[in-house]
Each structure stands twice: as structure tokens, then as C-alpha cells.
Amino acid sequence: VRVKPLKDVRRIDFSWFVPSLQEHHRCRPAEYVAHLLGHEGAGSCLAALKAAGLATDLSAGLQEDTSAAAEFAVSVDLTPRGASELDSVVAAVLAFLGFLVRAGPQAWVQEELRGLAALRFKFAESEPEVDYCRRIALSMAQPFYPPEPDAVLSGDHLLSAWRPELVEELLSRLTPSSLLLTVVIAESGAAGDGGDAAGPGGEWQVEPWFDTQFRVCPPLSAERRSLWDEAYAGAGGGPGDAPWAALFALPKPNPYIPTDLSLLCPPPAGGADPSSKPSPPSLLESTQSGCVFCLPDSRFFAPKGVVALEIGTPGASASIERRLLGELAAKVCAELLNEESYSASLGGLGLEIFATPRGWALQVDGFSHKMAQLGVRACETLASLATRGDDAEVGEAFSRVLQQYELGLSNACFKVGDRAPYERRRVLEASFFHYDDMLRAVRGLTPQQLAGFVADTLGGGAYISTYLGGNVDAAVALSFSKAMHAALGSPPPLQQSDVHANTVMLLADEGSCWLVWAVGAKNPTDSNSAVETYWQLGPSEHGLSARLTLLEHLMYEPLFDALRTKQQLGYTVHCCARNTLQMLGFTVTVVSATHLPLEIESRIGEFLASFLDSLAAMPATEFAKNVEAAVANRLQRDRNLAEEAARYFPEIEARTFVFDRAEREAELMRATSQSELAEWARRALVGDEARRLSVHVHKGGADPAGEALPDGALRFELETEKAKLSTWTQPDEPLPPLAM
Question: How far apart are CA 315 and CA 232, in angstroms?
Fold first, then answer.
């Protein structure tokens, strides 16, 4: 089957329909096959496809499993070359399946999977209660539900049986003759019929639900079937003279499975006090090279941890080229580490590395035993890019990353609901580069330029802000920090003030304003329009943030009820408090397939007038209940170490260091009177303090320049008028005192 997508997509999907596997939940043979077929380490199918320049990603597993049948699926994201050589990609996947058949079921692989499942279950982190109840209820409703009382909670997780004959039976059904192929490639990247695994011919049709264009291709030729059968048998089909099967190997035992599960922070003898206030991170070290914060675990008592660091560098956002090279460096680093980080992810250890306007950020979280090992490897790999401009491995990784990055830029803001907040940020952020400009600029970059950029950036100095939490103590935290700094090549010290500062455009210097920035939909066939109205309210401070939290809580449901449920403007209707580089604001967003932006804007205005009146007239008891509900929501405790890090590390990155922000704002929320909130909301949203930016995204084919404006609004032309706006830069707060 050939599918014509709207986005710029290059993908091929493999499907096999097999008998139901529900009754085999204790041994899960499909999980065994998916683990090996979807592996990303050396000798894997993906590694071979990457080396041949044909693919960038591969996933495998059960798509559906019902009492009647199951679907085992493989999805491969293609490079442009892979899109033109689909037969080779199909041959590689089939060759790996044949390789697994000949290798036979491996008991040690199942034992590794069993051990990992037991680890995940034993140290499972808290999840939202409603999700937990839903998951358990769905499992209990299945016909295979285990009758043993001790299996009620573990049945979805643990592997307790090994039946190699079931693996053999499943593999025997994943053959060329029973394969359904779905090719999803946009016309701009379509393969020619000569390399089209879906085959030529077949009339384009339109399915009735989503208007997707597709065609069912005629039966495969004998020549193509023979090619795939040979690859499956291990006899041919590979790149060059070697068959695909010669490139495959089973994965080695995972070196990232934790074996030391001891606790550096054991629970107190009487157990932890659930009502105690959370402790803030402590500052262990502050030098010209950076700062180190540590928060030993006092709540979760699991052998897990989080290390997060920001590598602040000079001039990271000084130009579009430097921003692009920073992002490419992070992505190439992740690509070079992919085989290793994939093994780490199976062992319960996650790695993220990405560029920021100030440099790079890195986070490792999961079981603490191998956490430092992976963090150091990531820092070493990033630093090594400075000397590997002519390295073949880096060149290949750079090529794959560049293709994926260009694809992402091509597909950016394809939906009007994504375009509206993007354009708001484009107006507000001083250092912002449009995806079209980035797409043009990225096409000329080379691995040699990347090497020069990394060498120049790290050689120019770095200020490294580090947070370590969980199963760590002060000595371990300082050791981690020193090891990662050394792995980065010990960049020279850099004053924090030399790191890129976050700067925001001010909609007005004083008084009120209402600006309208109108753009067209990126997708010419999109029938939706979107409006995002933003109010810029002032620099971040606790009182303003408390009022914003209350406003969002009180407005969210009435807004949805009025504009979505009753007026049927569109499915997407919501409001939200915003923090744009420490400048606070508030948005109302509506996406509609039935109304144009001007009408949507009018309905928003009518709602605001009604809402502000109702807020002032709300019974005092009802207001008090809403305040307590909003406070309870603000004071929700973190469910795991990752959420705890997500609360504290942004304070370190932003140089604000307000680790008790939620408690301070909750206190101010309780102290805010109904009349005070109502009067402030009226002044800020519709009164003489209202500084308003409305982003109008018009449906495909509409001319935004011809749109009439709401009464009192001014048309904003970003290209000529953004530079005329004044700016505000967040000042850095002083570091807290060093821990004694």
C-alpha cells in the first residue's frame, strides 16, 4: 500500500498479522523478538541500515493484540537514499528476521529481559492515580487476567516463563510471503518505480474518514519476491558484495544493567515523615568555572538519581549559524552515543543532550550505579567533536543528523495550532530564528565547521551549572562534577555575565497597546484558523505569579464551556499562564474550522467581558473553594526524582534560585482577596494596563494581509517593527550561601 502524506515524511511500515498472543503474557514472545529486531547496538538491523545510509530510526513491537489476532509491526524512518532504494531496506529487515530464525531463541536474552522487568517493577515510580487505576482495570478485564492474587499488580510487568517454542512459532510467521508493506513518502521525497518496494501501478484513491490519498499496488513480481526470499535466507540483498546477514550479530550482554543497588541515603529508622517540607538543594561549590548543587534523596529511597548540567558558553545565540552549529553538535553527539545510550536506556538510564540559547544542557537520570559513567561519556563525546572534523564516523553521523534536522524544519508548525504559539515566541524573544531561515542556513554547514565551532566555543570558556539529586551525597556530587568538567576538556573559566542573557521584547514602554500579527497557514489545505491572544504582564515576581495561577484556575473551565461546548468554535480552547524568559504573561488560544480569526477574536472579547463580571460577582464561598483548589494543585508533591529535578534545575538555569517558589506563591494566593484579583484582572486584560499581542493564523489559501482588524488594534509587521520595540533582560540573582 502506498500512502501520500501531507508532511514531508519518509517511512516504510511492515505488518504481519499473527494469532493472538494474549494468553502468553507471562513469557511475551513478541517482546523477545521486538527487543532483538528493534535493538540499536552494534550488529543490529538499524546499525546496518545506518551504515548503508538508508535509515535513521527503526522501531518494532506489537501494534495490536486482541483475542482474535495480533499485529506485529516494524517501522523504519528513511534517508533520501533509503526512500529511493526501498527494496534494499525491505531486504535488510527480512534478512534480520531470517538471521533470528537461524540463530534460534537465546535463553540468556530472555533472562536479561526478565531481570530488567523485575528491576523496573521493584523500583517503579509513582504515576497519576487515575492512570494507575485505569491500567489495572484494563488488565483485569482481559480474558488472560491471572487468577493469582499476587499477580494482580505484577501481571503486566514481570516475565516468569521461558517458552522458546513460542518465539520460534512467532518468527515462523514473520516471513516475506505474509508481509504487508505500507510506504509513506511525500512526493518531494518519493522513490522512483525502479526502487519502489510498493511497486508501480494502482490508481490513487481517497479514504473517506481523513481524506488520505493511497493506492493498493498490484502483486509483487517474481523477481522482487525472489530478491526478498534470498535476503531472508541469508544469501543476498546486502550493500556491496556481502549479504545483509553477514553484517548482523546478536547484542552482547548489556553493560549498563545496574548491579549496585545500595542506598547512600537510606530511610530513617521510623520511616520518612510524609508531611515534612521538601529540602532545597544545597550549594556545594561556586567558582569561576561554575556551581554545583546537590539534593540527597530524603523521600523516595530508591537507588536512582538525576544529574543535570547547563554548559553556558559565550555567543551561543550570536548568529543563526552559531545557533545551528550548537544544535547540530548536540544531535551529532547523541547520534555517536546512540548504540551506548540505547543499552543504557534498556538498563533504566536515560540521556538527553540538547542545545539552549545559552549553550548546551545535559541530563542523565535513572539507576545511579552507572549514571556517572554515561554522563562522562556524553561530555567526552561532545568535546571530541572539536578534533574530529575529518573523521569518517562523525561525517556519517553529521549527514544523518542533517537529513533529520532538515526534515524537522520542513515540517515545523504544519498545524495552525502549533504556528500560533511559535509566532508569539518569534515576536517576544529577542534571539529567535525562523525555521525557514534556519533551513536555508543549515544546508551549507559541514563537519569541519562543526569541529571549528566546538573547539572555539569550549576553548572560549564555559560556566557549568550542575544539579545532582537522588542517591548521591556531597562527596559523590563533587566527584561527578569534576569528572564531567574534565571530560569536557576542562574549558577555561567564564564569568556568568559573559553567558548569553535572556532578553524579551516589550510590547509597549508604558500604557496599553493591542498588536495583531497575522500569518497564513503553512499547509495550504488546512481548513483551520487559530488565534492566540497574549497579555504581557511584567517581570516574574511572586505576587504576579500567584494572581496568574488563580486567574488560569478560575477561567479555564468557563472558557472551554463557553467557546467550545456552547458556541462550538473549535475543539482546541484553553488559557494558560506563560513565563517567557522570566517575563510573565497570559494566553487564550482557540483553533477553529468554522470561524475566521476576526470572529474568534470577537468571541474571546465577549467572553472576557462576561467572565470579569462573573469573577467580581462570584459568591465568596465559591471563590474561597477555588483558591484552596488552586493552592492544593500548586503544592502537589513531586512523584519522582525527575519531577523534583524539573522543579529545581530551572531555578539554577535561570539564575533565580527560588527553591521554595511554590510555597511562597501558595501563601500569596491565599492572601489575594476576590476584589483585588477581579480589579487586577480587569486592568490587565481589558483596561488601561492591557498590553496585548494577538497572533492570527489564517486557514490555507486565505490572505492574512487583507484581514480587517478588531477595534482599537494595530497591525504589527514583524520584519520591520520588532526591532523598534524596547527590550528587557532578566537580571541574575546572587547565589545562595555555600553549604556548611
Answer: 52
Mention every residue, 6+ apart, whose C-beta is less than 8 A from residue 232.
Answer: 94, 95, 97, 98, 175, 176
Distances (CA, A) of 387 to 340, 455, 461, 484, 489: 21, 7, 17, 18, 12
In sequence order, which ranges of 186-237 are alpha helices (DSSP H)? 222-232
pLDDT recorded at residue 703: 86
Lowest mean pLDDT, pick from 137-141, 227-231, 618-622, 712-716: 137-141
Read off the pTM: 0.91
Residues with Cβ within 8 Å of 153's Cβ and at least 6 positions away in sequence, in order, are 136
- Residue 423 φ/ψ, nearest 5 degrees: -70, -30
Residue 194 has pLDDT above 50, yes or no: no
Closest CA to 479 of 466, 491, 489, 470: 466
Query: Quick one: which H or E segment has residue 116?
Result: helix 107-122
Measured CA to CA, the distance from residue 87 to residue 65 in angstroms comes to 28
Query: Do 533 and 710 meet the contact criterion of CB atoms below 8 Å apart?
Result: no
Kindly give, in sequence order, each residue whose CB lies less than 8 Å from that of residue 520, ignoring residues fewer than 6 positions away. 697, 698, 700, 702, 703, 704
- Cβ-proximal residues to 416 (8 Å cutoff; 6+ apart), any chain: 521, 526, 528, 529, 530, 591, 697, 699
**How large is the C-alpha radius of gyration of the chain?**
28
Q: What are residue 230's phi and psi, to 5 degrees?
A: -65, -40
687: which 3 cell numbers?
Answer: 483596561
Whether the Cβ atoms of residue 484 and residue 289 lie closer than 8 Å to each other: no
Residues 157 and 149: their CA atoms lie apart, in Å, by 15
Average pLDDT over residues 498-527: 91
Dmax over Cα atoms in the chain, in whole Å?
Answer: 81
Q: Which three cell numbers stand for residue 705?
A: 494581509
The sign one gets for the Cα dihedral 317, 320, 321, 325 is: positive
What is the DSSP secondary-structure string of 578-615?
Answer: EEETTEEEEEEEEEESSS-HHHHHHHHHHHHHHHHHHH
The three-class DSSP label of residue 203 is coil
Sheet of 290-296: strand order equals 282-287, 290-296, 463-470, 304-312, 359-367, 349-356
Instruction: Spell out the alpha helix ranges (H) of 283-370.
Output: 320-336, 338-346
What is the residue-wise DSSP string for 280-307?
Answer: PPEEEEEETTEEEEEEE-SSS-SSEEEE
User: Which contacts of 363-367 are long-range, i.e. CB under 8 A and separated by 24 or more positions?
Assistant: 363/306, 363/307, 363/308, 363/309, 363/645, 364/306, 364/307, 364/308, 365/304, 365/305, 365/306, 365/307, 365/641, 365/642, 365/645, 366/304, 366/305, 367/119, 367/123, 367/258, 367/261, 367/303, 367/304, 367/305
The grid coordinates listed for 377 are: 561519556
Q: CB–CB of 469/641 below 8 Å?
A: yes
**Each residue's pLDDT tens digit, 271-311:** 777 667 778 999 999 999 999 999 999 999 999 999 999 99
Beta strands 304-312 and 359-367: pairing type? Answer: antiparallel
- 581, 727 contact by CB (below 8 A): no
Q: How far is CA 61 from the centre of its chain?
A: 21
Cβ–Cβ under 8 Å, residues 37 and 97: yes
